[in-house]
Amino acid sequence: MKLTTAKRIFVAGHRGMVGSAVCRLLDQRKLEQRKSDGVEVLTASRSELDLTDSASTLSYFQKHRPDVVIFAAAKVGGIVANKTYPVEFLSDNILMAISAIRAAHQTDVGRFLFLGSTCIYPRDCQQPIQEESLLTGPLEPTNEAYALAKISGLKLCQYYRSQYGSMFHSAMPTNLYGPGDNYHPEHSHVLPALIRRFHEAKLSGAPSVTIWGTGSPRREFLYVEDLADALLHLCELDDPPDWVNVGTGIDSTILEVSQMVAKTVGYEGKVETDPSRPDGTPVKCTDATRLHATGWKHQVSLAEGLQRTYQSFLNETQSEQLRSV
Ligand SMILES: NC(=O)C1=CN([C@@H]2O[C@H](COP(=O)(O)OP(=O)(O)OC[C@H]3O[C@@H](n4cnc5c(N)ncnc54)[C@H](OP(=O)(O)O)[C@@H]3O)[C@@H](O)[C@H]2O)C=CC1
Ligand SMILES: C[C@H]1O[C@H](OP(=O)(O)OP(=O)(O)OC[C@H]2O[C@@H](n3cnc4c(=O)[nH]c(N)nc43)[C@H](O)[C@@H]2O)[C@@H](O)[C@@H](O)C1=O
């Protein structure tokens, strides 16, 4: 089953940054026009469907019978949220993955695309990170819980595919950013945290902004609308990889990235570091060879993506829709 032949497409986590970008892209591609042929994009808020509840998840799948599932629901957060709440990051994410993947099998879903993260790879694995590095060494302690849940989801998809022939496969996105991100000062990822902090410093005229850690870790960033495009592309492949990195192959230090954010926001003060805060993985950059071999490459540079994200941050702040949870 391919996306373009599906009648019912379930986007799990449609209110999140990734799920909402996938829904916007489906809409742009006029899948809505196929409504006359009975094509539907299915969504369910958490109050309608708690995906950690396997019985409710199975009944939802039995009732709505999706053909294709893009699974962008998860408990998500930055380095401090992951480090502080390992119980929830492991248990919620593993329950969601197992409930949904099993329900998909039990209701004959034609394609299931699971989303993991590049934090599944060993902390000190060879760079750039190839898919083959999975399970070759210890995980980064700050996100071990989340990574274990994501590895389980990826492996469960792979096992259903090999044991039952199900078209279940996974994408491992690198660090993401873009419209609809979470701007919580402590729990968010680095880019939304810094956009907010530099913006507030500009407004208050603060002489300096402090970033966490030493500023030396290297990270790769992908604009969420590029990710949405990659996910739809993967859903069209006849024989997709069991799991594939989705990234740009380009990384920068956190200090360099913070200077880019300052420039985007128009902040002219100093940038200071706080080494008492965790650095996490020293380097995390994907090898995008497997992805490129499927015929997909990112389009949006970090400088351009930051401009677009800052604009959406300003719009979200003005309309009081800023997510900060
Ligand atoms: N953001 C990033 O940098 C990266 C994200 N990813 C992966 O991409 C996917 C999407 O992440 P992102 O969009 O950033 O995350 P968000 O936090 O923005 O969105 C997550 C979505 O999952 C929903 N959700 C959480 N728990 C439940 C539950 N128990 N039942 C039903 N729905 C639930 C949330 O619902 P509600 O709106 O009600 O809270 C929300 O809509 C995740 O799998 C994540 O692991 C991978 C790499 C990097
Ligand atoms: C996507 C990925 O995201 C998480 O891993 P992470 O890559 O470490 O994510 P992060 O965005 O929170 O931090 C990146 C770097 O940036 C530095 N940093 C500076 N200043 C701020 C700051 O103000 N906030 C944050 N969060 N980080 C900051 C921070 O110290 C670190 O060195 C995983 O837990 C897991 O969720 C996962 O898969």
TrEMBL record:
The record marks 117, 119 as: Important for catalytic activity. NADP(+) binds at residues 13-19, 115-118, 150, 173-176, 189. One of its GO terms (molecular function) is isomerase activity. The keyword DNA-binding does not apply. The keyword Isomerase applies. The active site is at 146 (proton donor/acceptor). Substrate binds at residues 197, 212, 219, 279. Pathway: Nucleotide-sugar biosynthesis; GDP-L-fucose biosynthesis via de novo pathway; GDP-L-fucose from GDP-alpha-D-mannose: step 2/2. It catalyses: GDP-beta-L-fucose + NADP(+) = GDP-4-dehydro-alpha-D-rhamnose + NADPH + H(+). CDD domains: GDP_FS_SDR_e (cd05239). Belongs to the NAD(P)-dependent epimerase/dehydratase family. Fucose synthase subfamily. Catalyzes the two-step NADP-dependent conversion of GDP-4-dehydro-6-deoxy-D-mannose to GDP-fucose, involving an epimerase and a reductase reaction. This is GDP-L-fucose synthase. It comes from Rubripirellula obstinata. The gene is fcl.
